UniProtKB/TrEMBL annotation:
Residues 318-398 form the Ig-like domain. Residues 1-18 form the signal peptide. Coiled coil: none annotated. This is Ig-like domain-containing protein. It comes from the Bacteria. Keywords: Signal. The keyword Signal applies. The keyword Isomerase does not apply. It comes from Zunongwangia profunda (strain DSM 18752 / CCTCC AB 206139 / SM-A87). Pfam families: CHU_C, Ig_7.
Amino acid sequence: MRLFIIFLFLSFAIPAKAQLGFCGGSKGDPIFQFDFSNSGASFQQYTTYNLVAQSPQDGSYTVSSNLDIQSDSWHNYFPQTTVSNGNAMIVNASYEAGLFFEIDIPNLCENTTYEFSAFLMNVYDRASNICENGGIPINVRFEIWDETNTELINSGDTGNIPSTTSPQWDLYGLTFQTEPGQEKVILKIYNNGEGGCGNDLAIDDIVFRSCGDLTIIEGPDTETTAIGLCEENSPGNYTLTATPDNSVYQDHFYQWQSRLEGEEFADIPGATNRLYSASNITKTTYYRVKVAEDPVNLSNVYCSSASEEFSILFIESPTAPVSAGDVDWCDNLGAATLSVRATGEQQIAWYDAETGGNRIAEGTSFQSEREGTYYAEAFYKDYDCEVSQRTAVRLTINESPVVADEMLQICPEGTLILEAKLPNLAYNWSTGETTAQIVIDAPGIYSVEVISPESCSSIKTFEVRLVDDAQIAEVTSDDRSVRIMPQNEGEFEYSLDGINYQRSNIFQNIDGGIYTAFMRDLANCKIVNLEFPHIVIPKVITPNGDGYNDNFNLNGVDYFSASVIAIFDRYGTLITTGSGAGFKWDGSFNGQQLPEGEYWYRIRIAEFKEIKGHFSLLR
């Protein structure tokens, strides 16, 4: 069997804690700590084992900071817990169970309850699988004896501590009480584990400290450990009450202490009762009370327990916030930020009036889109003290230039004037110019920043494209409508007289005749035209003698010097033909009325494209 023993001083959070009997109240500062930081020192007086340089065998020990010196079955590192130089006492115990460590604990206080504690770790690495079933668990017994080594004061066993796959410290302890006149005890530590594979352990951080009641100080408000004293209410007078939880002491003796900011605690002469009257307080003052079972122990910090601090915080009247300055803002920038500076822990509230008014925001800054004067007030959030005078901050909202983006066209190899269209302002063009208008000679994206006298600005963007190419594909007539069809996609203007242009390419209620269609781009770079015949052709004839639509005749054909009109039935049989001027057909053939149906026409006009279509004959 290998028994592995390590002594270190630790100050860390332990992942697991197994209690044999810890102090349930208030713990004092350590009165005894065991330290192996001096690697050259011999600890033979505490153990019968022999010191070796490394790899201790049964009944020997060494001092080292390296755990992985003996066996592949152990963990290969210590948790990072040492507070000295990292050395440890490593002991390989004898095969037989029994006492393996004994040390005198001197300089204790009589009639005092103490807590002994130590950290233990099973150093066998369960993941190594060298020992069956995780190895033999460690099991340790702690005993506290009187200074004569004849009376056992208290003892406890840890029980089995199984191995783990990663190193883990567990904290164990005992509490005991010294008798009148008793100032020393003896600590003995035994190995209860069985011999065999496993039962290798580390022990660390042997500490003795006083154990007392957990005492709290109650002020006027028993729910807090601090109260605020507003400057306007000073000097302050309060009654403080020490309330122990009676978890350890049967008798209680008190000594009140106080300190100012930055000072150490000092006894308050004569303040030895459970109640203390703190009076004439004009500064932040901290209080605590020492408690002991024997009044002689009140003078020794290692023999008494102390309460947590109770604070009486002097709260100076808040000072008026310091303005970061009035704000001139522009209406196109969203909300403006108004700011002030506060002193220390003072908080800020914003109001819409110099006194009274509505509380509209909290914080050293807030945002608003409304012009006006706002007022900042300093206060303490956690204390009901008076507030400061209010600081005024003015917000002025200036109007920004109103602009609208434009899309323009430029002629090939031409120039174009871009205008901000807002006079008497400052201008910053994307071209670097600073005039109200500029001349460009190429398509692209241009912008101008227009700046008001109040330094508010807006950006106007010009999208300049090369002009669309104006070309007429054809002109179509449909009854009294005319449609000018463009050859290319784009934006154009259209006209039938070359004077009056429109964006629509459709013209309504046009009498028959010879017309010229005009088309131009929006930049008026190019104008094209096409002469075309416009003949109003009926869609239906009803030869019933009522004087309406009795004949197929054409409106506008008489404008042409030569024209030929032919009408066919649905089989392509020529029904009639004639010249354009005065042509008409009454729906008959060789004096016989033809049946209802669809009939086709063909109109040929000199120098123009042939016109074809059909119409309906109704009876």
